[in-house]
Write a structure and sequence with these properties.
alpha+beta, six-stranded mixed sheet, about 15% helix
């Protein structure tokens, strides 16, 4: 990679499992999630576990309401549909968003509650630089997560991107660091938490008693990781059962994709 003097674009990305906007106090509050996101001013926001049109959430389109409150654009992908109700993931940004792909991931039989999982891939331009982001939420079963990690590396997903493409893969992978699914993904990408001080995985779940890191940010070779942050405040402890994970990323001139 080129020297530090060639850095031309810095982006802050947040991945956040919002738990249907239900906090640890049992209160469902979109406003609280918006407050968490706004406090850290991410350029790109990847959210998991959003309700759309579900009775339990009063029929709200959570992705749209969060985007409207933040005054940003969004793409939502329903990993699950139950008649008129939807549940899934979204990517939001104040920068233009182009949808590349949105689809379900393999869901092999599991002894856990079977729940369809999906992924959402967008492309955006920030300061004249193209960034690509895949947001996902893996299943609970080990075989399920392994199959989903393999699918993300296939030619249908990240395998279609060149090694020079600035590509970020984020989400709730339900896999601890060095777990089987995590190892599949780090065969192609670098784990942001291993690239910046303190070079270790901070726990992202659960907020009342953090004990495991299941939320991750993976980056392609072209991207430099400047910093990683897991904000633990009274607000982030209350707003969801996951903490947000934030990374500051830099793209160097030799890696530009316009």
């Amino acid at each position: 990679m080129a020297g530090a003097g060639h850095v031309v674009c810095i982006v802050r990305i947040m991945t956040y499992n919002v738990h249907g906007c239900v906090g640890t106090d049992g209160v469902r509050s979109i406003e609280r999630i918006v407050e968490v996101i706004a406090a850290y001013k991410p350029d790109i926001i990847a959210l998991q576990e959003l309700d759309v049109g579900r009775a339990r959430s009063g029929g709200a389109h959570q992705a749209r309401l969060i985007a409207e409150a933040l005054r940003v654009q969004y793409h939502f992908h329903p990993a699950m549909r139950m008649e008129e109700e939807e549940y899934g993931d979204a990517i939001l940004s104040a920068h233009p968003l182009e949808l590349v792909k949105a689809a379900v991931l393999p869901t092999p039989p599991s002894r856990f509650l079977r729940e369809t999982r999906g992924a959402l891939w967008i492309r955006t331009q920030i300061d004249g630089v193209r960034w690509e982001v895949i947001n996902t939420h893996f299943g609970l079963g080990r075989a399920e997560r392994f199959a989903q990690a393999q699918a993300l590396l296939s030619p249908d997903w990240a395998g279609a991107a060149s090694a020079e493409t600035p590509l970020i893969v984020v989400g709730d992978f339900n896999s601890r660091a060095n777990g089987r699914a995590h190892r599949v993904l780090t065969s192609r990408f670098r784990d942001a938490q291993r690239e910046a001080p303190p070079y270790r995985h901070g726990a992202t779940f659960m907020t009342r008693l953090p004990f495991i890191c299941v939320d991750h940010i993976f980056v392609s070779a072209a991207i430099k990781v400047n910093a990683v942050n897991i904000p633990r405040t009274p607000l982030t402890r209350a707003a969801s059962d996951h903490f947000p994970l934030i990374a500051e990323l830099a793209l160097e001139r030799s890696s530009l994709v316009l």
